[in-house]
Design brief:
5 strands; 5-stranded antiparallel sheet; Alpha-Beta Plaits; 11 helices; alpha+beta
Length: 295
Amino acid sequence: MSGINPLMPAIKRFDLAYSIRWNLFLITSGALLCAFAMKSIAVPQQFIPGGFFGVGALIYYKTGLLTPGILFFLINLPAFILGWYKLSPRFVLYSLYGMVVMTVAFEVMDINVVIHNQFYAAVACGVLNGLGGGLILRSLGSGGGLDIIAVYLFQTYNIGVGKVYFGFNLALFLLCLTIMPADLVIVSLILVFISSAMVEQTLALFSQRKVVFIISDHSEAISQTILDSMKQSATFLKGMGAFSKREKNVLMTVVNNIQLKKLEEITFTHDPQALFIVENTFTVLGSSFSKRKIY
């Protein structure tokens, strides 16, 4: 197997993904969206958003002490102390920045979105919160304490991050069922479900790629044009025709949705008889793409 791997595009992608400005932009944007969703929709409707903010909101609804934002900040502190000693300082500092931005934004925002139907409010809050959470998770940080605990448990005991969230929120909503109206708990569950789905969709916007296999007698010429005009890496895989028993190169490359049409044009310009196979993929790490996120 051989490959074409231009260096400059790789350096640019890595510089962007690991640049402080880019990460702070993602975290700030995501935290502001989450704060807006919580302050303007969730708290006025008395929703339980799940996670540590959900715990803070529940305490606020039942005691009136402090505010959900301040309670969220205080509940997070022990998790950040744990993360500082057990995880990388970079991950913890980015996460701490996100928590501070969200707390401050929650406290200073004074925008009330009036939505009379609770189901509509849950949908709107879930979409905004999920979008914000997805932006934060695209950075080298996270959204707060439960993320830190989940990563720590995963690295130390191999407990899946999703299982930690599921277990925590299951316990939280079972508690809510004993002290809150069932209708409110159910609509809060809808909010959490929509938020989780929106996080996945937001991450897919950044991560979705197309794996393309090109089978052609002109694969060398196609690969050179890809390299020259698209500045895109490619790899040759050795293949053999089942009928002809002839060896030939299978060209494999990974592109985004925008690049796909251009790649198709290049391929069939060189060889109208080429076989052009496209598959969806959501995680591409290494080479000239994203590096693995290290906590």
